[in-house]
Amino acid sequence: MSRNAPALPAAAVPAAAASCAAHKFGGSSLANASCFCRVAAILAAQPGPQQLVVVSAMRGTTDALIALADAAVRGDGGWKGAHAALRERHLAATRDLLGDDADATLAWLDHGFTDLANLLAALAVLGTPSREAAEAIQGLGEVWSARMLSDFLTREGHDCACLDARDVLVVGHGELGAVVDWETSSARYADWRARHPPPWLVVTGFVARTREGRATVLGRNGSDYSAAIFAALAGASELTLWGDTDGVLSADPRLVPDAVPLAALSYDEACELAYFGAKVIHPQTLTPVIARGLPVRIRNTFRPEHAGTAIGGPAEGDAPRPPVKGLSVVRDLAVLTLEGAGMIGVPGTAERAFGALHAASVSVVMISQGSSEHSICCVVREADSARAEAALRRAFVAELARGEIASVGVAAGISVLAAVGDGMAGQPGVAARLFGALARCGINIRAIAQGASERNISVAVDAADTARALRAAHAAFWLSPQTVSIGLVGPGKVGAALLAQLEAARARLLREHQLDLRVRAVATRGLLWLGEADGAAAWQDRASEGGDLDAFTRHVQAEHLPHALVVDCSASDAVAARYADWLAAGIHVVTPNKHAGAGPRERWQAIRAASARGARFRYEATVGAGLPVISTLRDLLDTGDELLAAEGIFSGTLAWLFNRYDGSVPFSALVHEAHALGYTEPDPRDDLSGTDVARKLVILAREAGVDLDLADVAVESLVPASLRAASVEEFMHRLSEFDAAIAARHARTRDAGRVLRYVARLDRDGRASVGLDELPADHAFAHLRLTDNIVQFSTRRYRDNPLVVQGPGAGPEVTAAGVFADVLRVAATLGARL
Ligand SMILES: NC(=O)C1=CN([C@@H]2O[C@H](COP(=O)(O)OP(=O)(O)OC[C@H]3O[C@@H](n4cnc5c(N)ncnc54)[C@H](O)[C@@H]3O)[C@@H](O)[C@H]2O)C=CC1
Ligand SMILES: N[C@@H](CC=O)C(=O)O
């Protein structure tokens, strides 16, 4: 009889079966005496008069028994010590559990361990492995733990019997493992139960008997299978598998720490997830319960208050179903490819290929064939790949010789990632979302498969990409937040303001947008802090000397986080020189630093070229700080407009200085004040020399497609020639020496009824200039406030009346906000719902 369709004779189901609940406790739930007590408490809290409890061995016991048998066969006398330790562990747990009432159980256990010692001694003499002996030994742990639990429950006042499954469960061994003889087993179970009526029953998991009467085991995860079999035999109304997790998680928590427990799964979803690596449940376990439509629940022995995961329970009603419930991976695989024009339109090629693999006992994990029929590709276990390749070469030896099959290839080091969910059927865009998420973190897909059930999309990726792929996909389906690993270079005035803004917004972004902006590294010229998920608060106290940007980069681009982003808030040319490499490596870059945008043309082109390959580069704050200057120009150009001229006041510092300066306070004092307020560049001469304004003009010109370099801009500098080479400190100290000159120029201009303003201009022929203008007092640029920038775009559409962007153009807070907005724009392109 097939293990998939347990047709139970009606006699097998006891009269009171409807109220019987079945449970299974795994080895971790029965690790020691206090675990047994916890299990008893859980059972005592269950409703209903009948409890069927299937148990595994105490944690580690099965492995210990296998090791004992191996050691005995090898003639390694060390088995005696290991046997004594295992015996003492069971006796000690029994003494703890049963106290004064332990004698009978201890004597029974002692007898069992003596029998085991005799068997091991016989194996040691024989020196040859015996399958019979090995299977008899492997299952002893369940026999012992079942008796211990049963005796403890009885002592606790429950009317409880203990069933050694070998007395009723009869199995054969087929290609897929143990096959239950349902007819014999159910008759034996009914007979045994008639003789042992207590409402509570503890059953040994894992063990069974062959038709020939020999003790055997059900294979790995056999206790779950036992639980499903006995739940079916007892006609239980439900089965709970108790372990050490809160149910089936949406992904392996070791790879995706944000994985969440799933409230409900269909049988099909559970099987798909289990096959693709979710260890909580083994698909074959489910066959007896699926056949009976028995609901299964996965729960945590150590958190019984958690509802766990319901499998195969009532349908989830009309509530919208997420397209993907969970993701899993299988590692250590290889892609096998059979390729050649001679396969096109030839019937039977696939049959021969898979027949050859079957004959070589190679299990195929995934299959993919393009409609051109030019190649067949499948994924097999890496350990089988050499055998599989040889089998294909043998099967197609003639075609290979004739060149009809061009190649049989194997690519090892592959993982298969599967996205699973009943809700993806008929829903467009699910595959796109998966593929897009992988593409955005630069992961190449080696092969793709989706069954017609549309319940599973599987992709083969390089093993090195496994964790990142899983995390990216997990976030893409909103099973966990979209996590971006952020590294900040230059935590000065703007950088510090940005850190504070990120910290203040973090919880809200996580809650409302499932976006986890995680600052994990900070670098200055001399310090480096590398952290994890605990945020960058007080990073200085945890930083080390050095500021090594290579270590910084490696840490930001963590293998386990799908997206990496560097924010450069320095004013460093050397840092800007790294952008192209960062972008080429898939690291997004956001910056207010003008050195890239206005730097050497070739470098700028390399940065643009690198960003065209996928990683994003955003630099809105380089012109106008938090103002939407670059994005406005982009919108104009992208919609087909043409820039004719740009003109304005591009420096917050210079705007503030000339708005404030009326001769009553020395100009140098105002420069000091602007510096303290964080308006100036780190070196205020960059502002006063006009270089900062010229850089902004170059950035805008290049954005508009004008091939401009800094050297092409006619610049009027306000920095006295004698202070150009001085240190910043000396410059600031001696600036007052030149107050008289600027006071005189101001007075002349004022007397002429005009005002001084530092203006940038770009015309349609690419002529660019920045300098101090004497403007009429009623000029638009004469009426700005504080640090206001004004940028006027004259375009084909805005020819008569230019489009104007105006507002504060300097200061740490507004600049940081502009940088933050760019970070969010990048996150949105990564799939964040903003
Ligand atoms: N302050 C403002 O209003 C605006 C500033 N910006 C730009 O923002 C950037 C930062 O400006 P502020 O915060 O005012 O300057 P700041 O002098 O306060 O901060 C610069 C930071 O960069 C660090 N740094 C310098 N060279 C470095 C290197 N090679 N490696 C690592 N770190 C390095 C410094 O240690 C410092 O922490 C500049 O590029 C500036 O042009 C852009 C728009 C407005
Ligand atoms: N120092 C600059 C800051 C913004 O770029 C200015 O004053 O505009």
TrEMBL record:
Presence of keyword Nucleus: no
Single Gene Ontology MF annotation: aspartate kinase activity
PROSITE patterns: ACT, HOMOSER_DHGENASE, PROKAR_LIPOPROTEIN
Domain named ACT: residues: 338-413, 419-493
Cofactor(s) listed: a metal cation
Pfam families (UniProt xref): AA_kinase, ACT_9, Homoserine_dh, NAD_binding_3
Keywords of the record: Amino-acid biosynthesis, ATP-binding, Kinase, Lysine biosynthesis, Metal-binding, Methionine biosynthesis, Multifunctional enzyme, NAD, NADP, Nucleotide-binding, Oxidoreductase, Sodium, Threonine biosynthesis, Transferase
InterPro entries, per the entry: AceGlu_kinase-like_sf, ACT-like_dom_sf, ACT_Aspartokinase, ACT_dom, AK-HD, Asp/Glu/Uridylate_kinase, Asp/hSer_DH_NAD-bd, Asp_kinase
Pathway annotation: Amino-acid biosynthesis; L-threonine biosynthesis; L-threonine from L-aspartate: step 3/5; Amino-acid biosynthesis; L-threonine biosynthesis; L-threonine from L-aspartate: step 1/5; Amino-acid biosynthesis; L-lysine biosynthesis via DAP pathway; (S)-tetrahydrodipicolinate from L-aspartate: step 1/4; Amino-acid biosynthesis; L-methionine biosynthesis via de novo pathway; L-homoserine from L-aspartate: step 1/3
SUPFAM superfamilies registered for this protein in UniProt: ACT-like, Carbamate kinase-like, Glyceraldehyde-3-phosphate dehydrogenase-like, C-terminal domain, NAD(P)-binding Rossmann-fold domains
Catalyzed reactions: L-aspartate + ATP = 4-phospho-L-aspartate + ADP; L-homoserine + NAD(+) = L-aspartate 4-semialdehyde + NADH + H(+); L-homoserine + NADP(+) = L-aspartate 4-semialdehyde + NADPH + H(+)
GO BP terms: homoserine biosynthetic process; lysine biosynthetic process via diaminopimelate; methionine biosynthetic process; threonine biosynthetic process
Protein EC: 2.7.2.4, 1.1.1.3
CDD domains xrefs: ACT_AKi-HSDH-ThrA-like_1 (cd04921)
The family this protein is said to belong to: In the N-terminal section; belongs to the aspartokinase family.
Subunit structure: Homotetramer.
Function field: Bifunctional aspartate kinase and homoserine dehydrogenase that catalyzes the first and the third steps toward the synthesis of lysine, methionine and threonine from aspartate.
Designated name of the protein: Bifunctional aspartokinase/homoserine dehydrogenase
Originating organism: Dokdonella fugitiva
